[in-house]
Write a structure and sequence with these properties.
- The chain is built from three helices and four strands; from the N terminus they run ββαββαα.
- It is α+β, with helices and mostly antiparallel strands and about 110 residues long.
- α1 (about 20-35) packs antiparallel against α2.
- The radius of gyration is 22 Å and the shape is rod-shaped.
- About 15% of the residues are buried.
Length: about 110
């Protein structure tokens, strides 16, 4: 399975295509838009298969500009959120341990 999948939904049936890179997936969707194979009511998406992340999704009025803007906005994955959470917990535990060490050291 390729790491990226595009979905083009025209209201009746979805079309799935797999790509090796997000750039290739973007080029495919851009070509659909430019060649007018996408109507104003169609939905487009790019999904990362490696971390189940929605890289791009737009339900109506897809344009090359909206595709570019949507792809260059970073959407954090669950793994990134989890890593940030663990880092926050570690920082708080370090502060608590330092405070506890100071209290015990003063006795």
């Amino acid at each position: 399975m390729q790491p990226f999948t595009t979905i083009h939904y025209d209201g009746t049936s979805p079309v799935f295509k797999s790509f090796a890179t997000v750039q290739a997936a973007e080029a495919y969707l851009r070509e659909l838009i430019v060649s007018r194979q996408v109507s104003s009511s169609d939905s487009l998406a790019i999904i990362s298969n490696t971390d189940d992340r929605v890289v791009y999704f737009k339900q109506h009025n897809n344009t090359v500009a909206s595709l570019y803007a949507g792809l260059h906005r970073r959407t954090p994955s669950f793994a990134q959120h989890w890593q940030q959470f663990l880092q926050s917990v570690q920082e708080r535990l370090t502060i608590a341990f330092s405070a506890l060490t100071d209290v015990v050291g003063r006795r």
